[in-house]
Amino acid sequence: MKAFLLGCVASLVIAAAGMVLLNRVQEPVAHAFATTGVRL
Questions:
Q1: What is the pLDDT of residues 7-34, one digit of tens each?
Q2: Scanning 2, 7, 17, 20, which has the fewest C-beta atoms within 10 Å of its C-beta?
C-alpha cells in the first residue's frame, strides 16, 4: 500500500513538473506562425 501511494504521489509530481515545463517552452500560435503568408 505504501508503494502504491508513493507511486501516485510521484506521478502527480512528474505531471505537474511537465505541465510547468511545457508552459514555459511552448510559444503561442500567433508567434509561432507569424509570417507574411499566414492569416490568423
A1: 999 999 999 999 999 888 887 777 766 6
A2: 2
